[in-house]
Structure formats: C-alpha cells, structure tokens
Design brief:
Shape: globular
Radius of gyration: 22 Å
Helix content: 55-70%
Strand content: under 5%
Largest sheet: 3 strands, mixed
Number of domains: 2
Low-confidence stretches: none
Structural class: mainly alpha
Number of helices: 17
Distance between the termini: 67 Å
Mean pLDDT: 91
Number of strands: 3
Strand order of the largest sheet: 1-3-2
Length: 356
C-alpha cells in the first residue's frame, strides 16, 4: 500500500505538467481563479507569517533542505544500484511534491493574462515612440539628478542604509495603488538574502522565494539599485511572475515614490532599458542621444556595470542559460530576451500617460 501511494505521488507529476499545458491556453481563467483571488490570500498569509522576522526564513529553509538532501544521498547511495526502482520512486515523489507546491504557492502566475491586456494597452510600438519616451526620460532623469547633486558630473549616492531603503519600498506601491488598487502592498516582506555573495556570482540581483513569499535582495549590489530591485521583487510577490512585467511595475513604483532618490533610481532604470532598445534598433540614434545624459547619471550606470564585471566568472553563463531555460518552460517563450518587453510596456503606457 505504501509503495502504491508513493507511486501515485511520484507519477502525479505527469498530469500536473499536462494541466499546465492546458492552463497556458486559458490565461483569463488563471487570472480570475488564481492570480486575483486565491493567490492574494496565499501571498498575504505568508507575508504576515514570515515578513516580520528580520532574517530570511526561506534562505534558512533552503539551507536545511540542502543539508537534508546531501545527507539522504549519502545514506541511500548504495540503493542507487541495489534498489534503483524504489530509489528513483523516492526522488520522483519529492520532485512531484515540490513541483505541486511551487505552482500552488506562486508559479501559476506564469499563466495569467499578459499585463498589456490587463492595462488595455498595445504591445507593439514604433522606434519614433521609443525615442520620444527616451527623450522624456532623459530630461526627467537629468532634472532629478541635478536636483540631488547640483552638479551634472557627480553620481548620486544614496543617503540611506540598505536596510532603510528596503523599509521605504512599500511607499512607492502605496502611491501606485492610487491608480492601480490591486497593487496595494501590505504587509511587507523584503529582506537581504543571506546568500547575497552566491547570487552575485550567479548574476542575479534578487529573487522571490515562492515557498515563503519573501522578496530577497542581493545585499551586495550598489545602493543605487536597491529601490528598483526591491520594487521588482515586490511585483513578483504581488503575483506578476514574468520578469518584464515585474520590471515595469517595479520601475513605476520607484518613479512614483515620494522620495526623490527613489524617483531617480526608477527613472534612470527605465531610461537605461529604453537606451538599450534604441541601440539594438538604431545605433546611430543611440549615439545622438547618449551625450544628452548628465555625466553623473552615466557614472551611476558605470558603477553598476563595474560591480557586475568584478564578479564575472565562468559559471555565470551556465546559471543564465539555466534560468533562460526555466523561463521558456514557464510560459515565457522568449526566455531572458523577454526582459526587453518592459520597453513595450513603458512606451505604450507613457504614450497615453505622459511623464510629469
């Protein structure tokens, strides 16, 4: 009987995969039945349970799980040969349970309606529209930068500690929720990961733990990036699983934040995405726009680039390729290239809602 139950659990992964294939064709159903209903209670519940704790519970759970897996593999190493069938059954059962929990607690959000449909905006845009937004963002970013530094050649340094920046992130979502009530964010659960060094070497600035719903930020990244990175992870917490959508929502939360340093981080973030897309489409236009940006803003961009360059390693491309494959398997057909879709969301939203 025990083997029968274990087999049932192990092979339940097959109907789970089939169900996801079916759900991919019904995003409106996922949106109404999960993302805007059940998931809201799951997310808030876990944030109430774990958010108040100063340490990353999810990272600790991952540590304990890793120790348990290593211990289990050592203890059961001989079974690989002597009892292969039941060894594989044990492994597949664990994978099946984890796969089920991963989707139930968060990952069904990969199959929800695309954000441009929820916002009722277009997903395509012209180069002219892109350049127009980039020019607006350049002016806005330069203005905010100069209001902080009073010198267009000086980079912005955050006057807050990283812990203070994480505490301030929800204020941007409070402002954003005045336009989009479903983006109201409470309670908070944003923490620095205890695995920040590992995340840095892997090339990631943060992640959302789907099993505890804690937003994890790489504590080593420059402070200038904390507002947008933290806001990005909060967007994941609110159920926006796609990276491009989380970038868009996170940038808006920072841009609309009452604090001028958050506004600077958000506008500079959006501008850089637009500039990258302009360079991809028409390098000549990019060359004419680049000199218009305050050199202090460019120094902040360089600060981030130098940070990541310092941690380049042979394994980073492997992690990026793995994540790219994961995204493609999770209903994001463009993989990591889907990050550029944030530009489409920015252009089409701000075409109808011009920057102040």
């Amino acid at each position: 009987m025990q083997n029968y139950k274990k087999s049932l659990i192990a092979f339940s992964i097959i109907p789970q995969i089939l169900l996801l294939k079916i759900l991919a064709n019904y995003p409106a159903f996922v949106e109404s039945a999960y993302s805007t209903s059940l998931y809201i209670y799951i997310s808030k519940g876990m944030r109430y349970v774990f958010g108040w704790l100063p340490i990353s519970v999810g990272d600790i759970l991952y540590t304990l799980l890793s120790i348990y897996i290593i211990r289990w593999l050592i203890i059961n190493r001989k079974r690989i040969i002597k009892d292969t069938k039941h060894w594989l059954l044990d492994v597949l059962s664990a994978i099946s349970i984890g796969y089920f929990a991963f989707h139930l607690l968060w990952a069904f959000n990969y199959y929800r309606l695309p954000l441009h449909e929820s916002l009722n905006i277009d997903k395509d845009y012209t180069t002219e529209e892109l350049v127009a937004l980039a020019e607006q963002l350049t002016t806005k970013t330069n203005t905010i930068h100069l209001s902080i530094t009073h010198n267009d050649s000086v980079k912005v340094d955050m006057p807050y500690s990283k812990a203070e920046l994480l505490e301030m992130i929800p204020e941007g979502y409070h402002q954003l929720s005045k336009t989009f009530p479903y983006l109201e964010y409470h309670p908070r659960s944003i923490k620095k990961s205890i695995y920040s060094l590992a995340l840095t070497y892997m090339g990631f600035s943060g992640y959302l733990n789907p099993f505890t719903n804690e937003a994890q930020v790489d504590g080593l990244i420059p402070s200038y990036k904390f507002p947008t990175t933290g806001s990005h992870e909060v967007a994941h917490q609110l159920g926006y699983a796609a990276e491009n959508e989380a970038n868009f929502i996170g940038s808006m939360a920072a841009m609309q934040h009452p604090d001028v340093y958050f506004q600077y981080s958000g506008h500079a973030f959006a501008l850089r995405h637009c500039l990258n897309e302009i360079y991809r489409r028409d390098p000549e236009i990019y060359e004419t726009m680049f000199p218009k940006i305050n050199s202090g803003v460019l120094k902040n961009y360089k600060e981030v680039q130098n940070f990541w360059n310092a941690y380049e390693n042979p394994l980073e491309p492997i992690f990026e390729k793995t994540f790219d494959s994961f995204l493609k398997a999770s209903n994001q057909s463009a993989g990591m290239e889907s990050y550029s879709y944030v530009v489409a969301l920015l252009v089409n939203y701000y075409t109808s809602n011009p920057l102040d």
